[in-house]
Amino acid sequence: MKHIATLSLLLGLTLAFTASCSKDDQELPAPAPEPTMTYSRSIVYQDNGQHRDTTFQAAQSQAYVTQTAQSLVVGVNPATSSESISFELSRPKLPAALTGTYTLQTLRDQTLDAASTYQYRQPESLGGGSILYPSSMQHVTGRLVISSYDAKRQLLSGTYTATLTGASDPTVAYMTFPKRKCDITVSGTFANIPVRAVQ
């Protein structure tokens, strides 16, 4: 009888432990999806239509999203940091869901949704340093699309495209004059990028 009672007690404890483990397993949140991003840049020279195109895939790119009470900034760049693009939105003007299609500000209209800055870092052979192309000083068309926002995990996804019309050629030494005029288009995607709060 004692033997049967002991077995019953052990069986009961085993079942309780198994049920407890199963319940714990079910309550674990699913792992966050991996962030992915793409980045493509095309330079088309206005004088002869010559192209300089480069596409970087997810393994070659990185992205970030930062947020303050005043702004939300989305940035994407090749891992080499040879160039980058960023978009800044006014946080108080954004809907709670963050999703939407946002037009890019340009030299002639700073009232549009997002300020953008394209940056091209020159190699040391051309003098080094970075050339900045802010939308406040450039003719820019394009848009930033925030397609989804996972508020629970704070992950942002979307697409972007920006065309700088009549920009100075970034691929020649900074002191070269006159510089050829070109149209620079940067486009790509970003998915599951963590939104990081900054001061």
General description of the model:
With 199 residues, this protein is mainly beta. The protein is 13% helix and 50% strand. It has one helix at residues 2-27; strands spanning 36-45, 51-56, 61-67, 71-78, 83-90, 100-103, 114-121, 130-134, 139-150, 155-168, 181-197. Strands 1, 2, 3, 4, 5, 6, 7, 8, 9, 10 and 11 form an eleven-stranded mixed beta sheet that branches. The longest helix is centred in the N-terminal third of the chain and has 26 residues, at 2-27. Residues 1-11 and 19-24 have low confidence and may be disordered.
Give descriptors for this structure.
199 residues; mainly beta; 11-stranded mixed sheet; 11 strands; 13% helix
Uncertain residue ranges: 1-11, 19-24
Structural class: mainly beta
Number of strands: 11
End-to-end Cα distance, whole Å, is 69 Å
Sheet bearing the most strands, described? Answer: 11 strands, mixed
Strand content: over 45%
Mean pLDDT: 88
Could you tell me the radius of gyration in angstroms? 25 Å
Helix content: 10-25%
Helix and strand run = HEEEEEEEEEEE
Shape descriptor reads: globular
- Number of helix segments? 1
